[in-house]
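Hi R.,

Here's the chain you asked about this morning:
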Amino acid sequence: MAKKVFIIDSGVHQGFAHGELNHHYAQLAQTTLTELGYEVEVRRVEDDWDVATDAAKVAAADIIIVQVPGFWMSIPWQLKKYLDFVFCDSQVANGDGRHRADPSAKYGTGGKLTGKKFMISTTWNAPLEAFTDPDQFFEGKGIDGVFFPLRKTFEFIGIKDQIPTFMANDVVKNPDHEGDQARFIAHLKANF
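And the predicted structure, written out as tokens:
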């Protein structure tokens, strides 16, 4: 039976953005992974969605990919709203892990979706060195440092195994869309 991949596409209409680049990456992932034998479904967060239906899709997936643009050093509010509703469903969430009867149980250990993986794929107008150089804007924290809360969101629901993050940089001011897309396909083939 084919492994299931659920892609959460958070390309959105906001300000000057129209979501097209992130929609393209979500489609490219769907096509590439389908060719590799995965069963792939994409959810656009701007479309209508039902909490229970999408929670079931998240729970059934072996791997979840979040395709996300960098908006104001974080994720778009539409993705946050989606996670706030869908990840709170009982099919996904199971409390915070602590128990009054067991004081040694730690916060953030109650996730029920163990044995799964997630991946973040992201597009930014910021150049790569803004993330990697300690003297630049993100102080050398890297993209996973910037997206620390998103990573912890997956860990909270039990998904601790992260496939390396993919990032396309300088997508507006100095784009290399063809090169980035080739790197993305190679990234998927190397990690799936």
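The beta strands are 4-9, 39-44, 63-69, 117-123, 161-168.

Let me know if you need anything else.
M.
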